[in-house]
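Hello again,

I reread your note about wanting to compare the complex against the isolated chains. To keep things tidy I'm splitting this into two emails, and this first one only covers the full assembly. Below are the input lines as submitted, including protein chains and any nucleic acid or small-molecule components. They are followed by the predicted structure of everything together. The single-chain runs will come separately.
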Amino acid sequence: MYVAVKGGERAIDEAHKLLDKERRGDPATPEMGVGQIREQLGLAVDRIMCEGSLYDPELAALALKQAQGDVVEAVFLLRAYRTTLPRLAASLPVETEEMDVRRRISASFKDLPGGQVLGPTFDYTHRLLDFGLLGGERAADLPDAPAPDASGAEEEGGGNRLSGIASLLAREGLAEASEDDGSVPGDLTRDPLVYPADRSLRLQALARGDEGFVLSMGYSTQRGFGSGHPFAGEIRMGGVEVEIAPEELGFPVALGEITLTECQMLFKDTGDAVRPPQFARGYGLAFGRCERKAMAMALVDRALRVQEFGDAVKGPAQDQEFVLSHCDNVEASGFVQHLKLPHHVDFQAELESLRRLRASRESRKDDAAKGEEAC
Amino acid sequence: MSLLARSPREAVERAVKTLPDQVAYGFLRRPETGLCMVRGRIGGTGPAFNLGEMTMTRCVVRTADGRVGYGYVAGRDRRHAELAAYCDALLQDEAARPGLDALLLAPLRGELARRRERRTAETRATRVEFFTLVRGEDHNG
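Full-complex prediction:
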């Protein structure tokens, strides 16, 4: 239990002033603009949108600036802002098969229709520090854009549209099919999670879950605390159109395009009386460019389907209460950091209790010594 | 409407300024910023799940001659939603549509197509064919 305390207003004001000063750093260095953060620290911005569960690159960049680069604090700022806005609509489900693809790879199929498209990736870089960036980039150093190549782009109706590998496999019956049954998904921002949570709620929780936590859980399944050997069936990143169907119009309209990363993991399933032998799927989908997160999410999604597949339970990644109750970094950070709040009364009580225990222990010792003497 | 939503506000503003006849309008619903819950599909093709929210702004205008226009845009730009609603109202006039298509929509369509082409070319330049090195195919052996 913690109690309200009074006083300290002046110290708190000064602490906040000092925080502002720290945020700005040395005034001799140029101040960072939110636009610069959005454009040049885009992956941090994407992660904040993903875990903040709010797609708005400008606000995520602002949050990162205000939080001095502390991503979890920035996520908290975004979540707090979100609560000030009304929910105006829910979108129609986005169609990731229609994605304007900027990256699409498969580790399972060498020759997939449309080919492997590397896109902007850290893969194949040598992870050597680029000291050239230390001195500032000149415009002349930036790579030229390739000449527009309309060949092939038009054949699929503009943009870079590629068929999804999982649905290609599903058509052949080699991977489990996933069809829309029209069910309305649960929403953990409206109703508290109740266990067992269905797959739609689990995916919602994982999509906004802390990348580090989800990554470690996914990793644990690979190291033997989970469900079989995964294959990265497909990873794709690109622009997806978001549509809503406002009641006043009666037909769908597009709000705009957002960037998403999607991962389809494939796991061998030898089948049973009901299921034929095929590849089961783990699914990851997240805001922005966040491949590591989407892959880890897909691993954990499959691990959490333990009941469906009758898996042997080998690790915490298969325990949905463990995973879902601990994957949210705003909740986790709040509960860990609440320990900083004054617990004076609690602590005083524990202190008193320890003193009493010590006193009774001492008196027991004395009694025992007296007893021995008496013998 | 999709075109108006997907084009940057500056581009819509520019295109609207080129129109010869500006029409007076008032708000039926002032620009309002809120949230849209973005839904995905389980497994990419299956039932819906709630992925996360995005900011959106909506607006409804009525022109002096009684046409009602709706604007829905991603983000928090109230002016963008207002412009989208205004253009939507103008486009309700069937007779004016061909002219508006040429002056208002064609430049926006062109700009989006150019942006997409540039992006597609950049992406396509990173397309790769991986070769598998097969063991035991030594022609001398």
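For quick reference: Chain B has one domain: 2-121.

B.
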